[in-house]
Write a structure and sequence with these properties.
It contains no helices and 9 strands. By secondary structure, it is mainly β. It has a 7-stranded antiparallel β-sheet, with no helix packed on it. A two-stranded antiparallel sheet has the order 7-8.
């Protein structure tokens, strides 16, 4: 029989704060570590921080920052994103949102083309989206 000594560890920490009725803030940190025979140690760290400010009863603006770092047997890859969002309630059930996001790979291992990571392309990208959300 083969002695298999694989293990995984997960830490997930979330903190939120609402200093006023109009402002909400949160921070989320995750750490995952896996030891696998033959593959070695794999670890991932992620951090997200965001806030939303209600500038009226129907309109808000939000900002979000995300960081991701993966270490696969000594090779580290990092990525960052910064996102800005404007939302406006058109009716009680219909909300319009516009969002712009900037993605950046921290090294040459993470590159982008049309929203997906591929080799020999750009190390950053800007993505915009508009959406209508109907809640029922």
């Amino acid at each position: 029989p083969t002695n298999v000594d694989d293990s995984s560890h997960l830490v997930d920490v979330i903190a939120s704060w609402n200093p006023s009725d109009n402002l909400g803030v949160y921070v989320n940190f995750d750490y995952v570590k896996t030891d696998q025979p033959g593959a070695g140690e794999i670890s991932t760290k992620a951090l997200a921080a965001a806030s939303r400010l209600a500038i009226s009863d129907t309109t808000g603006i939000a900002a979000r920052f995300e960081y991701l770092s993966t270490d696969l047997a000594g090779t580290e890859t990092t990525a960052y994103t910064v996102t800005g969002t404007v939302d406006h309630a058109l009716t009680d059930n219909l909300t319009a949102r516009a969002e712009i996001r900037w993605d950046m790979g921290g090294d040459d291992a993470l590159l982008f083309q049309n929203g997906s990571a591929v080799a020999n392309q750009e190390d950053s990208q800007v993505v915009g989206v508009a959406q209508l959300v109907y809640s029922f």
